[in-house]
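Lecture 7 notes: from sequence to structure.

We start with a single chain of 406 residues. Read the sequence below before looking at the structure.
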Amino acid sequence: MEQRTRGIYIIISSVLAFAFNLSFTAAAVYRIQIAQLAPYQLILVGTALEIGVLVFETPTGVLADLKSRKLSVLIGLAVIGIGFAIEASFTAFLMIAFAQIVWGMGYTFISGALHAWVSDELMNQGIEELLLSGAQYGRFFSILGIGVAMGLGAISIRLAMYTAAGVLIVSSVVLSGIMPENHFSPTVQKGKVWSQYWNQMTSGIQHIRKHRILSVLLIVFLLYGLYSEGIDRLYELYILEHLNLDNLLNIPAVWVIGGLNAIISIAGILMLGLVKKNLSAGIKTVILVMQLTMMMVVGILLFAYSPSVFFAMAGFLVFRMTREGTYPLLEAIQLRNTPSEIKATVLSTFSQTDAIGQLVSGPLMVAVAAMFGIQPTFAFSAVLLGAVIVMLMSLIRRMRAHKEEK
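Now the structure, written as tokens:
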């Protein structure tokens, strides 16, 4: 049963990676060349996504703890697919933004529930290694998704996006019959339904507030959210219009974005393998996250300010591949420091904090980009990542002090 659980977790990670990269590779070109969104609209599309995550993240995490993590994952897969299909059907900015809210809501059903499910099913045995393995398999299937996007995108950008939607919806149906849930005990809360939700959410927040590691980690997640919107929403535009890479290589834009994402996925596999090889629970995990974050800062600045297209793209590759290794490690820290009965709620609270950071960051990055341009926007992202490094240093000090107390 343990091997079956590990296998299904790998399958879900792979399906999500395949569908996301299939859709995102096509959508990047769709928004720029078909919908013809302006830079501020590209950022606001991301803001709409974070609104969906912000509104629904904690309620869906609470639902997973109170009812069923398996059901939450299945609903999430289907709703994400519906969101992808909506975007592919319209070119109007408002409808594209609405699609982000829909699939963002779907993602919240998965974000806390999936890792809470696998953590309890395995009783945390080898959880760090499994999360990294899931991310590695995800990178393999990312490459496959990108390849399919490039092939289908040459025929129709919309066809690639509809295919991603169909894969997720079908996967939800198939997994309903094979996904186990043997070690989950619904959290019992007395009172009416809304009272139960409120009590569960309050329990999760209180646990984070009182926990010396998780309380600092929550600030780290807020800062990760703050830095990301600028570069995540503008890097395709920067590559296609400022670095002019598609014209330099004389190939379609979807091939540029797809090829770049494939290279990033391959580099991500290597990075995750290196992280897994040097994996160690506890304080060394946080030190590794800090080192990876430092490399992210260097990569962003090289991408933004290198006079050479080659070195700029090398910097972007460094940024993306080092980011691959941070989130599985941060999620493992959360899982090991949270009791089962509030696990999905706590994980969702962290995701919601990240969403708050991204939601605040969206208008802020719009203002910076409008006043100063894209390159200073990237530099601002790097400065915010510097604040992450400071908080991780603080977390390391706390962990060392706690260890000495023992």
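Residues 2-178+191-405 form a domain with the Growth Hormone; Chain: A; fold (CATH 1.20.1250.20). Keep this in mind for problem set 3.
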